[in-house]
Amino acid sequence: MEREDVNELILQKVNEIDDDQVRNFVEDVLRFERAELDKQQPHYKNDFGDYLQRYIDDWENYESNN
Amino acid sequence: MSRLEIRSLTLENYRQYAGENEIKLQTEGDKTVNVIQGENGAGKSNILNAITLCLYGKESHLDETKDNELESYPYVNRKALDEVGDNETAEGRIEITLGEDEPEYIFSRSFKTVKLNGGGFSSQYGDLQLKEKRGGDWKSVEHVSTRLNQILPVHVHQYFLFDGERLDEFFGEGYKDRVKDGLLDVSHIELLENGIDHLGSFEGDFEKELSDVGDAAERKRKEYENAKEKVNNLKGDLDQTKTNISDTKDHIREIDDRLQDSADPEVRKKQQRREYLTERLGDIRGDIQEVRKEASRELVKAGTPLYAVQSLEYTLSELKELSEQGKLPPKIQDTFIEELLEKGECICGEDLTEDHREHLLSLQQEMSTVVETNLEGKMAIPGMLQDAEEHAETLIEKRQKLAKLEEKERQKNKELNEISEQLKAHDIPEDVDVQELEKQRTEYEDQLEDLQERKGKLEVRIEQAEEKRDDKKKAFNEEVSKEEKNAEVLKKIQFIESSRDELESMKDDIVSSVREEIETKMDEYFNEIIWKEENYTVSLTKEYQVRVVGPRNDNKIGSLSAGERQVLAFSFLAALTSVSGFNAPLVIDTPLGRISSTPKRRLAQNLPEYINDTQMTFLMTDEEYTDEVRMNMKPHMSNEYRLDFADEVTEVVPYE
Amino acid sequence: MSEQIYEDTSPGRDYYIQEDKHDLYKELQNSEESPFTEAELNEIFVFAVAYGSRKAGRTPIDGSGRALFNRGALNDQTFWLIRSIAVAEERTTDVLIDGKQVKEIAEEYANGGITELHSKVFGPGDPLVELSDDVIELAQEQSSD
After folding, report:
1. What is the DSSP string of B211-261?
2. Among A6-20, B413-427, C98-112, which is the least confidently predicted range?
3. Number of domain units in chain C
4. For residue B41, what is the DSSP state?
5. Nearest to B510 among A13, A34, A52 (CB)
6. CB within 8 Å of B399: residues ≥ 6 apart
7. Neighbouring C-beta atoms of residue C89, cutoff 10 Å
8. 8 A C-beta contact, residue B434 and residue B186
9. Closest Cα in chain B to A53
10. How confident is the model at residue B36, as a pLDDT?
11. Residue B296 in this model has a pLDDT that exceeds 90
12. What are B433-454's pLDDT values in tens digits?
């Protein structure tokens, strides 16, 4: 059996995120959190850094503040 | 979809179970139900205890009953203990095999009991072990609890493995917290919260990277850091306050329990009455909040035109006058003028003279937007005033309703105070010092009130501090973005921030949709199972209040019978498990205990359908497992066992 | 007929409040004690216009204004309320030609009204009870006319 995945509900909401890069990043972050759920102090910064690198270059920086 | 099942449960020398007893529980197709029938003393409840002892290190049935007998009951079976001498140890174990289509996990925990010299026993249990099947081989797993948490986390397990008889207590006092916890647990909100926290810290690292652009930016950074710290401090305070609130509530509950145990029936009666009143008071307060909201809505709708009534009436009279003077004919339209010109008639009814004709034509031309809209005014304003009157009437109704509710609140409070005073004056000496306890209780209640006020204030301050922090952040970013080399880092920060914002809004959405879904399912299941002619509406508010509205009454959790409350709790748990997205098996001890015949039959019939695709193992007494129930369950049943208890030993036997 | 001649003007799209009174609006919308927690900002504004016309006075906006909402948020009835305030202020319907002035009059009544309303809500007493008593009385006076 595969590692348990992020809750369906949450994945549904994630799919509703318009911005492609943000959506993918958020998905990576949540999968990480799911896997590390039990750990008190997961070492997330390295992994987050990796995820960030995947998407940041393609991300359009919108100045809008709504 | 394959479901995760308990494929077998092995009890070796555990309590009534001597030697090795393997109970096969895997199910086939849509026959998702297992039944094990036996009496309580025969070890029925210990089957559930065995599962929770193995997986979570505790026996749920034991925690909740103060059954002293069971406490001194050693883990290891008596017969096995008979075979060892004084100061010697006997051992046993519990093993649970889980899997979908084939065995995939074997959880096991062993325990031992020392036979003490004086005739007593001392038991302890070992660590949870796990073997997992990977690629055809069984491998030992190191981080067992992590793995277990991915399958059935500790804080969710009580919704899957539970004692039916405790169910009606679920909706007793303090249920809102239980409901809220359940909801948040199955929404898996902590994932989002962890993500939000971690991203925040991650973002913080980048913020430190921003190289300074001189004093102006550094100043702004300092301000921003200070604002951030303030928010964190306040949040720390809030967490502490919440913990204190929870502790104080626990203290009060402890005292309540002890008062319940008083030898004096009067004291017990008063304590029970108090618990009933407190629950009702909670409901009434919820209703008051609701009615206040409704009244507020009417206030806004009625107040707006009514405060302006003088202006409205003046304007209306002006418009009417203009209309009468012929400057604003009632319903003049282009087409109307056309008709008049054709007919050769003037508005005043006289024949069209040249002057009249010219007048009409110029009217037509002057038809500006202002004139048209002035015509609307003559109609809009009376409409507004009429609406205002109606809203004011509704407002009056709401105020009256509010007054009644507040009176009820006062009454209940008064009675509660009286009970407290009476208990404080109680001076019959007994093993429970009622006077002292009551004094303590009052102190705790006062403390609780203060803490809750503090909590409210902190929440407001946190909101304000967060707004200030966001402003400071913006200001800082503005300064910093003036320097080119910071552009890249800023971009990352903004990306992370956008992601965090998404997570925040997802959180709210999810809690809200989960609540709605649970509400819908609860309503459906409750009505199905209860099966009375009347239709009940079960609702779950944002404040986690559960309201059951029948045709004769209004929000009467308090006046549901024990059986009805049990059904309600069942409906809630069924709703939770179906919404939870956890694909875990259910094990329920005494599911039908206090439920009367019709709902019992319907539960037996319908439960497998409500919670479809989930393995359900029911541990039932003879009284529950009637022929009728058996007949209703048969179509869904895969395994059926009986517990044969003789000579202090239980054997698990197939039913027939 | 008034002596004043009104210029034909169109009002801007946004409705303005005094910059430093934005917090008052937010507090009225967010605080648990307030009866306005379910109201939109434009609804609170219009309530303040009405309230101001009765309980406060016309207070010019000090400093630069801050846009609170735009005209799209208002419906026909609300427009008529705002117009009525202007008509009653100038004692003539002629003022309706001057859209800018109509809006300004409303904004100034809201400016006075919001401060008064905020004190009422956050002052002593139960604002729901006091304001609704007020409004009920007004309704009863109205229907007896």
Report:
1. PP-SHHHHHHHHHHHHHHHHHHHHHHHHHHHHHHHHHHHHHHHHHHHHHHT
2. A6-20
3. 1
4. G
5. A13
6. B295, C129, C132, C136
7. 19
8. no
9. B492
10. 95
11. yes
12. 888 889 999 999 999 999 999 9
Per-residue pLDDT at B198 exceeds 70: yes
Burial class (CB in 10 A: 0-12, 13-18, 19+), C145: exposed
Q: What does the pLDDT read at residue A64? A: 40
Residue C58 lies in a domain: yes
Contact of A34 with A4, CB cutoff 8 Å: yes
Global pTM value:
0.64
CA nearest to B375 within chain C: C80
Test C87 with B383 for CB contact under 8 angstroms. no
Tokens of C35: 């009866």
Q: What tens digit of pLDDT does each residue of C21-77 get?
A: 999 999 999 888 899 999 999 999 999 999 999 999 999 999 889 999 988 899 888
* DSSP 8-state assignment for residue B614: S
Those residues whose C-beta lies under 8 Å from the C-beta of residue B429, and which sit 6 or more positions away, are none
Q: Is B107 helix (H, G, I), strand (E, B) or coil?
A: strand
Is pLDDT above 60 for B330? no
Residue B266 has which token pair? 């009067």
Is C39 among the domain residues?
Answer: yes
Q: Report chain A's terminal Cα–Cα distance, integer Å.
A: 43
Tokens of B570: 């069942």
Residue B487, φ and ψ in degrees, nearest 5: -55, -45
Q: Is residue A65 part of a domain?
A: no
Query: Residue B634 and residue B605: Cα distance in Å, rounded?
Result: 9
Contact B514 A4 (CB under 8 A): no
Instruction: Mark yes or no for CB contact A59/B495 under 8 Å.
Output: yes
Structural domain boundaries enclosing A32 = 8-56
Total of domains in chain A: 1
- Residue A1 covered by a domain: no
Q: How many CB pairs below 8 Å do chains A and B form together? A: 91
User: Tens digits of per-residue pLDDT, B592-617?
Assistant: 876 777 777 777 777 777 777 788 99
Amino acid at B215: D
Question: What is the pLDDT of chain B when averaged over all its residues?
Answer: 84
Could you tell me if residue C8 is inside a domain? no
CA atoms of B549 and B556, how far apart (whole Å): 7
What does the alpha-carbon distance between residue B7 and residue B24 come to, in Å, rounded to a whole number? 6
Residue B332 has pLDDT above 80, yes or no: no
Using CA atoms of B70, B71, B76, B79 in order, give the dihedral in degrees to the nearest 10.
-50
Tell whether A24 is covered by a domain.
yes
Q: What's the average model confidence in pLDDT over B98-115? A: 91
Nearest to C41 by CA among C24, C58, C56: C24
Which segment of B24-33, B142-151, B603-612, B628-637 scores lowest on mean pLDDT?
Answer: B603-612
Chain A residue numbers with beta carbons less than 8 Å from the beta carbon of B191 are: 6-7, 10, 30, 33-34, 37
- What is residue B339's predicted lDDT score, i.e. its pLDDT? 62
Three-class SS state of B112: strand
Q: How far is C132 from chain B (nearest CA, A)?
A: 6
Kind of pairing between the strands at B137-140 and B129-134: antiparallel
Distance from CA of B384 to the nearest CA of C (A): 7
Give B202 to chain A, closest Cα distance, Å: 6
pLDDT at B470: 92
- Burial letters B375-408, b for 16+ CB under 10 A, else e: bebbebbeebbeebbebbeebbebbebbeebeeb
pLDDT over threshold 50, residue B165 = yes
pLDDT, position A43: 85
**Identity of the residue numbered B307:** Y
Structure tokens, B497 = 């921030």
Query: Within its chain, how far is the Cα of B637 from the centroid?
Result: 32
Residues from chain B contacting residue A15 (CB–CB below 8 Å): none
Residue A36 domain flag: yes
Q: Is residue C3 part of a domain?
A: no
Range of the domain at C21: 14-143
Partner C contacted by B285 (CB < 8 A): no
